[in-house]
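re: that chain from earlier
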Amino acid sequence: MDFLTQTYHAYTLYFWEELINDWFFLVALGFLAFELVRYGLKRRLTWNLIGDAVTNYVTLALFIGITFVIGAAYLAAFFFIYETYRVWTVPITVWSIVLAIVLADFIYYWEHRFMHRVGIGWATHTVHHSSPYFNISVAYRFGPLDGIVPFFFHAPLLLIGFHPFLVFFAEVVVQVYQTLLHTETVGKLPRPVEAVMNTPSHHRVHHGSNPAYLDKNYAGIFIVWDRMFGTFAEETDSVTYGLVDPIDSINPLTVFFHGFVRLGASMVRARSIGEALAFLVRPPGWTPVRTKPPD
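^ sequence. v structure.
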């Protein structure tokens, strides 16, 4: 059992993170090719679907560009918090790696819920939900602020004493697991798995615009968070993917920025600064209650 308590150097985790990212991306491309063949055999492959998949990777490129620009500051801020304000120093062992992943997954649930229920969060996250299709390429459909919001949710792990590279590694594990869920190829898994783990079936619900499926199944790895906090829904009816108000576009720039265009339009129509700012923090679809002027 010594391997459970053996300590690892932080740079080992950095190496693992980079290895997982690089190799899994290639695996995901191979799986997308399989999915496209499957669509073809089912006579569901269209130029629009292919264009949508290409758009997904263009948004990924834009996301990577933004991440590259802010990456140094993000990393520096993580290390500053860790070096200056941490309460403990958590050694990097198998136990702490597992604990960090579980905590990162719990944090992801609340981060994800924030992205859906707060205007500024939805403005960026709506990009991910705007595809009317559901395949592994959709996992790479990112919005402009998707690389910034996680900072504020994961910073508490640094205060506890988890090394920044361990926090990044845990985030990557959660994201890679999430990527696997974006498929129609896998049906429902055995009931014990569906009860505890997030699955493609659960995540299809999350991407549905069906009224019963809206704002459900925020989980990353463990669906138990949704069951605990009242946001779980079973996949029963056929899922209609995409937004309640579709964008009907595969133009990458339209897809990437549409959430902020819609948010900005709502703010411009506001009747006061306070009302305009409210759109940033209110849930999507919120409209101000206005009293009628006296006759």
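The CA atoms of residues 17 and 172 lie 7 Å apart.
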